[in-house]
Amino acid sequence: MKTGNGDIELAGIVKSYDEGRTYAVNGINLKIPDGAYCCLLGPSGCGKSTILRMIAGHEDPTAGEIVIGGENVVGLAPVERRTAMMFQSYALFPHLSVRDNIAFALRVRGQSKAERYRKADEMIEKVRLTELADRLPGQLSGGQQQRVALARAAITEPRVLLLDEPLSALDEHLRIRMRSELRSMQQDLGITFIHVTHTQMEAIALADMVVVMDKGVIRQSGPAREIYSAPKDRYVAEFIGGQNVLSGKVGKVNGARATMLGASFSEIAIPLPSGRHLEAGQPLDIAIRRDDIELKPYAEKPMLAEDAASVEGTVSAIEYQGNYVKVMLDAAGEDEFVAFVPERKFFENNLTVGEKVLAVWQVTHTQVMA
């Protein structure tokens, strides 16, 4: 089932309350391609669910346009927009079977029993619930209930399917399993999914496009790998996680490199960012992925390669994570500086709390942020 025309553009979207004194969303501009899996990611109160409700037609923006398939849909009812919403609670009818829950929207639209059951059975097969078609929701697992809710939303053949924290009610094991099922269903249906979550790895695992929000504005949007590996600012780097962030000022600028000086660390070599001009004394933030950090004995500092950058630190805590060991350092004046050390490599050297080390990384792996 490919409906098409599910490309979305939010142009200057504002949602304010209290006569403009409070803004839930403030000046959002965003384009989502047809057939994309887009995750709106951010902490509670950042505006992501408000955007979802405005796209669905459950709320109107104070200003701006919501364009779906080239049509400004502000003021149109949800059914006219051809959007469908899957709620966090699933909101299944407890007295109706799986088949009747999925067929309910078609019943409201006046389709014959034979026609709506035919379409419901096709959708039941898509979500792999054929053997459970006659069961009640109370006889299903959490993951099975979620598939019923998804099928009920998708049977109306929407251009856009909106999911509000769809995995939050599930336990961790089931949540991980359902991530792959959601992605697979989205690809099978071929329609635009917009998924609201506050869970970073959920967004990274699922989305073609991740939109990181903060206090009603977009801080960064783009492919999942770009958001994780190349955060544009300190907020995104710290919210997404997996990065060490250092603050300082530009020291020397020379050729393809510069240096950064910090209050709690000596000179660090950094690459010159493409398309940006750095000047001595300019404030700067950099990010280094935790899995790019190598821990070396402090005595090896004079022997570091020219393409290496480093900071000194003392091991403050060690956590075994299975395939890697999380080593926390008191380093560079940061509250938390972390290295993800491969498990086998860690136990070859077996660091101890209180040991002084060098945290080393390649200069080219440094992300220079705004």
CATH superfamily of the largest domain: P-loop containing nucleotide triphosphate hydrolases
Mean pLDDT: 90
- Content-based structural category: alpha+beta
- Physical arrangement of strands within the biggest beta sheet: 6-7-8-3-9-10
What's the shape?
elongated
CATH A-level architecture of the largest domain? 3-Layer(aba) Sandwich
**Low-confidence blocks of residues:** none
Rg over C-alpha atoms, rounded to the nearest angstrom? 25 Å
The end-to-end span amounts to 43 Å
Residues in helices, as a percent range: 25-40%
Q: What's the domain count?
A: 2
Q: Please, how many helices? A: 10
Overall CATH class of the largest domain: Alpha Beta
The H/E string reads: EEEHEEHEHHHEHEHEEHHEEEEEEEEHEE
Strand content: 35-45%
> Would you tell me which CATH topology of the largest domain applies?
Rossmann fold
Q: Count of DSSP E strands?
A: 20
User: How is the main sheet built?
Assistant: 6 strands, mixed
